[in-house]
């Protein structure tokens, strides 16, 4: 497991990378207001918990997340101005 701080747009985020097997990874980028997660995690659970959460898919690294677009999100993420298809780099501005 790798947990490290990354700086994006002058804000610090926690990046989490857990290698589950040779071909699969669990990935998250966590900000002060919410997080972006890979498709291994469940958006319905995040919704039930009231989280500000977004999902990206087809990612294998934190860098892949940074170059992705949102494919699912919670209603609390929508309240912050996050939209389907939004670039992660734009979403992170809202999560800091």
Can you tell me about this structure?
The chain has helices at residues 43-49, 62-66, 75-79, 88-95; strands at residues 2-8, 11-19, 25-30, 35-38, 53-56, 72-73. The longest helix has 8 residues, at 88-95. It contains four helices and six strands. The protein has one domain: Hypothetical protein YunC (Hypothetical protein Ta1206 fold), CATH 3.30.1980. The chain has a six-stranded mixed sheet.
Largest sheet: 6 strands, mixed
Helix content: 25-40%
pLDDT averaged residue by residue: 96
Look at the helices and sheets and give the structural class. alpha+beta
> What is the fold-level CATH name, i.e. the topology?
Hypothetical protein Ta1206 fold
**Largest sheet, spatial ordering of strands:** 1-2-3-4-5-6
Shape: globular
Would you identify the CATH architecture?
2-Layer Sandwich
Distance between the termini: 23 Å
**What is the H level of CATH, i.e. the homologous superfamily?**
Hypothetical protein YunC
Low-confidence stretches: none
Q: How much of the polypeptide forms β-strand, as a percent range?
A: 25-35%
E-strand count: 6
Number of domains: 1
CATH class (first level) name: Alpha Beta
Count up the helices.
4
Radius of gyration based on Cα positions: 12 Å
């Amino acid at each position: 497991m790798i947990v490290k701080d990354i700086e994006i747009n002058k804000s610090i985020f926690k990046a989490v990378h857990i290698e589950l097997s040779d071909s699969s990874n669990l990935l998250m980028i966590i900000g002060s207001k919410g997080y972006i997660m890979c498709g291994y995690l469940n958006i319905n659970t995040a919704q039930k918990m009231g989280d500000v959460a977004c999902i990206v898919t087809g990612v294998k690294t934190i860098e892949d997340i940074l170059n992705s677009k949102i494919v699912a999100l919670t209603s609390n993420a929508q309240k912050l101005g996050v939209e389907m298809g939004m670039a992660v780099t734009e979403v992170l501005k809202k999560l800091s």
